[in-house]
Amino acid sequence: MQINEQKVALVSGANTGVGFQIAKALADNGYTVYAGSRDLQKGETAVAEIGSLAKAIQLDITDSDSINAAVIKIQSEFGYLTLLVNNAAISTAGNSGRTMEEVLGAQRASIVPINELKTVWETNVFGTLAITQAFLPLLKNASAARIVTVSSALGSLGINSNPENPYRSAFDAAYGASKTALNGIFLSLAIELENTGIKVHLVSPGFTATALNNFQGTDTVEEGSIEPIRVALTEDLPTGSFTGPANFSGKDNILPW
Questions:
Q1: Each residue of 128-187: pLDDT tens digit?
Q2: Dist. CA 24–CA 36, nearest whole Å
Q3: What is the signed CA dihedral for 37, 128, 51, 145, rounded to 10 degrees?
Q4: Taking a C-beta distance cutoff of 8 angstroms, is the pair 109, 173 a contact?
């Protein structure tokens, strides 16, 4: 590939929330952006707002056929992928309509239904790795590729093992621990790929008001998208980074694993 190749990005879960904001920022900065959405019609609606550089693509990261179809489409249209943004996630598989506090209470390790835990991990951990594995050949075809995975400070063992952390009671076995597992897998991937030129980054949006927390987060979607957008657009960050919002992180926005 040529150094001046058109930059091509795929953002999963791009039809709403932080994923939408990332996709829009990438398009505004000249990327051709594939906006992944389980519901293609919702993706088309999002793309109409993002702009002409965006393309809707049906994508369910728990469905291998959907993933493979997305790979084939991008392969046929570009033959490479510059940036993969793993944003799609779920916070619960239990009954809808519950408050964030009710969800967290029901997802404590001592009582969480194993089938519900498996469903959350199927998306947040296994689905995220599955789509990454599927797109690695196209990432390797780009001149300088990156993988940005939206994680959460809630998954930090360093933060949650600190008794002085006032939010540690929110570290549940389904969502919070899925982000811990996600961090571990993608740190492993960063180490594996560190000599290939493909960079791997993890980033926390902070406590953002999205459907993941019944819109009870303290930050707006725009505020929560600041750090993920920065990481998605920055090409010279050291690989293997885990960062978060400036008001919640250490030097250079670094979060403890």
A1: 999 999 999 999 999 999 999 999 999 999 999 999 988 888 899 999 999 999 999 999
A2: 13
A3: -150
A4: yes
Cβ-based burial of 231 (10 A; exposed 0-12, middle 13-18, buried ≥19): buried
Length of the chain in terms of residues written: 257
Strands 146-150 and 199-203: parallel
Q: How is residue 257 written in tokens?
A: 């694993």
* 210 within 8 A of 217, measured Cβ to Cβ: yes
Cα 20 to Cα 225: distance, rounded to the nearest angstrom: 9
The per-residue pLDDT for range 11-60, each reduced to its tens digit, is 999 999 999 999 999 999 999 999 999 999 999 999 999 999 999 999 99
What does the alpha-carbon distance between residue 75 and residue 187 come to, in Å, rounded to a whole number? 26
Using alpha carbons, list the distances in angstroms from residue 161 to 117, 154, 167, 187: 21, 11, 11, 19
Query: Which residues pair with residue 149 across a beta bridge?
Result: 86, 202
Q: What is the pLDDT of residue 142?
A: 97
pTM: 0.93
Cβ contact 126:90 at 8 Å: no
Q: Are 21 and 50 in contact (CB under 8 A)?
A: no
Place of tokens 């690695």: 136
| pLDDT 10s digits, 191-210 | 999 999 999 999 999 765 44
- Structure tokens given for 22: 């990332």
Helix or strand (DSSP H, E) at 203: strand 199-203
Two tokens, residue 57: 């693509």
Rounded CA separation 210/220 (Å): 8
